[in-house]
Sequence to fold (341 residues):
Amino acid sequence: MAGRLQAKVPFGQSALAVLACLLAATGCKLNQFPQSTLDPKSDYAWAIKRLLDQQVFWVVVIFMLVLLAQLFILIRFRARPGAPEPKHIHGNTMLEIAWTIAPAIILTLVAVPTVLTIYKTQAPAPAGSLHVRAIGHQWWWEFQYPELGVTTASEMFVPVGRTVAIDIETVDVMHSFWFPAMGGKRDAIPGRVNHMFFAPDTTGTFLGQCAELCGVSHANMRMKLIVNDPEEFDAWVERQKSAPVHPDSTSLAARGKQIFSQGACIACHTITGISAGMIGPNLTHVGSRSSIAGAIYENTPENLGHWLTDPPARKPGSLMPNQALTPDQVAALVAYLTSLK
Ligand code: CUA
Fold:
């Protein structure tokens, strides 16, 4: 009997141990989720994170106060043998007023910082911001830099520390622009332009995701934000603005160029100097990108080959049809497209 009692761990201690383990586990795992909103990397994302932290603080304070009051009432006013019937408080004016005012104060504490943050993050972008048009397509994002004369797809490049002013648009259905590390979601709505701005505070690559159900490949409508030092960003712009290098006429890439410019590709894709299709991604510098097909595949010759062979098999609902290309044609196109740095 004595041995059994000694081995028994008190309930409170085991509950605390479990809680500590859970907290430690979630804390350690946070950075394993690349699309976490709890790891802010811009002024906008920090504004939301600070708001969340404040609200959680007040929620915990209120929870503890209510819990302590409940414990006090349970113990102080518990039924005792022979005790008289407690005093009735129905219709007590002071209590009625108190529990009307208390929630009003709490709601004000929640509302004021929330509304201030909404106004701050919805304001017009500061002057001198880098202007980017983010245009949703089923199922990829197009990025245009009107002042720089650059158009790209699936990968958005920006310099660290400078505010980016984004016009969010769509050519078809509703999408939602969302880089969790940079801030909240904002919808792309047919027939209107929504706005967002943020200044990234850290260099690196951040993942984004369409956040509005937009059809069968909604989950495959991803994007990358590449935040570079200003000099690297300027160099990227220069490379994007340069005309693509024409392949040596005897090479496989030259054969690919011929297939591209004589095939159906030109109806949908732009390659500067060759075609001006507006339906699919601009491919002028597709070889310089790290991913293809709405940032779902790494841009390797193998993946590009698989993609060209049968796009709808690689991305359900893909608007790029299977062109029934022969393996030789695919190899030539891969050589050409990967040469477009
Ligand atoms: Cu676009 Cu979901």
Observations:
- Residues 85 and 337 are 87 Å apart (CA to CA).
- Residues 1-6 have pLDDT under 50 and may be disordered.
- The first strand starts at residue 130 and ends at 137.
- The pocket of dinuclear copper ion is lined by residues 136, 139, 175, 210, 212-214, 218, 221 (CB under 6 Å).
